[in-house]
């Protein structure tokens, strides 16, 4: 029987991934504990990890515009929250430099929107993120492209791994 000579490397990779996942979850929890906007809009966290997050929000009566569709500002806020969370999951306090959003179709009262955000580039001081917003039927509502800046501070004061840019 042949022995797997790569087992220590595989175990180390799993441990590293496990640490990165745990770090991301702690960063997300810390950000969420201070995120009054998301709390006020009923935005919930569905899943998250290093460089990624999924959030959801129900479209309510108060979010409707004059056309009885969800005001684009609420959709943008959901996408922007996902952009912010995903950008800071590696214990790097990140702020948006710029972003743009394209709206594909309207959302209506009662729809559940899901923002799936993923960091697509990690540099020393900046990075980029893609956020796709879909409804409960997986129809694309909007897409946000954002660039963020790492402000040089950790999200978690007690974590020594700030600056880890592994993807």
From TrEMBL:
Keyword annotations of the record: Hydrolase
Show the SUPFAM superfamilies listed in the entry.
Thioesterase/thiol ester dehydrase-isomerase
Q: Does the keyword Protease apply?
A: no
Gene3D superfamilies named in the record: Hotdog Thioesterase (3.10.129.10)
A molecular function (GO) term: acyl-CoA hydrolase activity
Q: Which InterPro entries match?
A: Acyl-CoA_thioesterase_PaaI (IPR052723), HotDog_dom_sf (IPR029069), PaaD (IPR011973), PAAI_dom (IPR003736), Thioestr_dom (IPR006683)
Q: Which domain of life is it from?
A: Bacteria
Q: Where is the Thioesterase domain?
A: 69-141
Q: What is this protein called?
A: Phenylacetic acid degradation protein PaaD
Q: Could you tell me which species this protein originates from?
A: Pseudoxanthomonas spadix (strain BD-a59)
Lineage, broadest ranks:
Bacteria, Pseudomonadati, Pseudomonadota, Gammaproteobacteria, Lysobacterales
């Amino acid at each position: 029987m042949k022995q797997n000579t790569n087992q220590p490397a595989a175990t180390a990779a799993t441990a590293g991934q496990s640490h990165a996942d745990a770090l991301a979850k702690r960063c997300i929890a810390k950000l969420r504990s201070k995120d009054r906007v998301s709390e006020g809009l009923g935005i919930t966290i569905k899943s998250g990890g290093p460089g990624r997050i999924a959030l959801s929000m129900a479209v309510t009566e108060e979010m409707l515009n004059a056309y009885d569709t969800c005001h684009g500002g609420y959709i943008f806020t959901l996408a922007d929250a996902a952009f912010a969370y995903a950008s800071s999951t590696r214990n790097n306090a990140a702020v948006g430099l710029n972003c743009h959003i394209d709206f594909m179709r309207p959302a209506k009262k009662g729809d559940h929107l899901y923002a799936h955000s993923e960091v697509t580039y990690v540099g020393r001081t900046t990075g980029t993120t893609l956020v796709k917003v879909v409804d409960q039927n997986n129809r694309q509502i909007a897409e946000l492209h954002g660039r963020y800046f790492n402000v040089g501070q950790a999200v978690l004061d007690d974590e020594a791994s700030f600056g880890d840019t592994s993807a």
